[in-house]
Amino acid sequence: MANPMRGEVALWLDGRRQVCRLTLGALAELEAALDSGGLIELVERFEAGRFSARDVLALVLAGLRGGGWDGDAADLRRAEIRGGVVEAARVAALLLARAFGPVDGAE
Fold first, then answer.
1. At what angle do helices 53-66 and 84-100 cross, to 10 degrees?
2. Which of 94, 72, 73, 74 is CA-nearest to residue 83?
3. Is 14 within 8 Å of 80 (Cβ atoms)?
């Protein structure tokens, strides 16, 4: 089970449940993969509903890598995501929210 307090989100990929998480290393890889702007601009695009398929792919890939998945972007493009594009976008948005949102009980 994915632990939301750790920023984890579950994703079914090729019939297997994967745990996605935006670790610091995954965020660094994500930032390097972005064409323009940084992570804050990516968050703003998601908040405004102006994200692209490339944004979703980059976020899901970073989350999978942060969760320990060994695949790359080519593997993800060929993979079957249960729930399709809508689920991929939902997971991407949740990853951002859990990585940058407030944590209950935080000091």
1. 60
2. 94
3. yes
Q: Is the dihedral of CA 106, 43, 41, 25 positive or negative?
A: positive
pLDDT digits (tens, 9 = 90+) for 35-69: 767 888 888 889 899 999 999 999 999 999 999 99
How is residue 49 written in tokens?
A: 């509903």
Q: Which of 45-54, 74-83, 84-93 has the lowest mean pLDDT?
A: 45-54
* DSSP 8-state symbol, 3: -
Residue 6 DSSP one-character state: G
pLDDT of residue 101: 79
Helices marked H in the chain: 24-33, 39-48, 53-66, 73-78, 84-100
